[in-house]
Amino acid sequence: MDNMTRFEFLVNESQSRASWADEATKGRCAGQRNSVAPAAWPPYSGPLMITGDFQTLTGRLEELTRLAGTPGRLEELLTRALDALGSTIPHDLVALLELEAGVLQVRVARGPLADKRVLSHRLPLERHPTLRSVLETRRARVLEEHHHSGDEGDPYDGVLELPHGHSCMVIPVFAGERNLGVITFDSRTCGLYPPELVSMVTVYGQVIGLAMVTAELAGALDRHRRRLQEHNRLLEDEARGGEDAGESLARSHHPEMRRVVDAARQVAVTDAPVLLSGETGTGKEVLARALHGWSNRRDMPFVKVNCAALPAGLVESELFGHVKGAFSGAVRDRPGRFQLADGGTLLLDEVGDMPLEIQARLLRVLQEGTLQPVGSDHTMRVDVRVIAATHVDLEKAVEEGTFREDLYYRLSVFPLRLPPLRERREDLPQLAAHILEGIQRRTGRGPWHLSEESLRRMKAYEWPGNIRELVNVLERARILARGSELDVELPRVRNRPRAGAATEGSVEPPAGDKLPSLVENERAYLERLLAHTEGRVYGAGGAAELAGVPPTTLQSRLARLGLKRKAR
Ligand SMILES: Nc1ncnc2c1ncn2[C@@H]1O[C@H](COP(=O)(O)OP(=O)(O)OP(=O)(O)O)[C@@H](O)[C@H]1O
Description:
This protein has 19 helices and 17 strands. By secondary structure, the protein is an alpha/beta fold.
């Protein structure tokens, strides 16, 4: 080995700071004459002389750099980093303290003095100005006895009894602008860390800082990747759900449903607008997706917009897009749903809730096939097949003046009405089996089947929330199931009145012989529902779940009827 590259830090009596020790109270540093280390300390076997060669130090640095570039668990990485450092620099304790909100907290500790108390040690920077200055100056330094003797004390006071004059070195850990923490080296031997070594180890702190940032970024990337994977899985499920539901639509045993599906298949291959009507949860969106899948546009986008859930001021921009600067907050050009659906299909869900002035613009787009993004002087051509869906009676809305007649005729070129589930009970077994297969695919659990008793109860039930309610009921049953047989529970409050009889949860006609209107019925049902859930709309057992509609739909209906949910 080349002698020029060797170094040697000899720790002898003249260099030692043993004279600082208060022999009467604390004992001296180990390795010195008359050492009186407490009996609890492990036997000390560290060298009094640090010898080595720069090749070894460079090797350590290379090892740390390699670690810094290897994403892995931070704890493991820091442990390996401290071991690599500790194998070069003698110590009784080497610890990495991470800085968080002004407090240094021991994250990893190695060496004979590293015990549980050390691992839970915390040091508020405001009480340790010396440590703070190490971070501020970003230079490693030796802490000498006068640093410990004032109010500040030794960093490990209270958890370790280190002798006066022991060796203590602090290395700042940082990366870029960020101060991440410190590494402390402590040894009960005096004068172990000479200035030459201290100036060399600063760079180790930097490399460990980089390792910490790399691990943090890798962790964030990993979380992001998992979120994306999850999102992808949901999208795939949703897409597959469309195809599968298309299949399940085709398997219906109900004559009216079969007629609807046959007609839908025929119209799918044209570009004619289709108007889907039916109670909430009857599968209008599912049929719209199936229509898209059966059409020649199947490889182009299917885009959905829920007209009831759009904030009033944003409907226009959501549908037709906007240009940069069109309004405050429009920081760049943004395409609307029409542009996103170009070449494909656009589902205008809850079209009956669209504001009148937007209806006029929509009509123009449908007639001319061109649109103008908000704030733009230019018109652009789009090729979009429109499917509209509604659970309200649009003809009545036209009569009441809330829906434009010309738009109604434009949209209802090909109307299809989906029957409610209570009118197609013969489809319950195949629908339930199809939904359960979907849940099995999504969760990797199952298979499940329905008990005889469950099927009997389901066939007797009124299903006010239609297929959405069926999905919720099955989801709940499979969560509670102990084996493969499902026992469904159906809420009593939801049953509809049979002719001439008011059941629990039904809405009784007002006094006199006049029957309540649909709106009166809806209002009474919603008031009762909110009273039942104490105003809670969201979550398990909330009004939206009980009604079998999405919370946003319920919110918009409550707003339309001027009903307020109670503050929680
Ligand atoms: N034929 C079917 N097979 C399996 N699941 C279905 C079927 N039809 C509907 N569903 C499921 O029922 C739920 C409601 O369906 P969808 O959203 O299409 O109803 P909707 O009539 O559009 O409701 P809303 O009027 O509230 O928008 C969804 O979870 C859907 O996957």
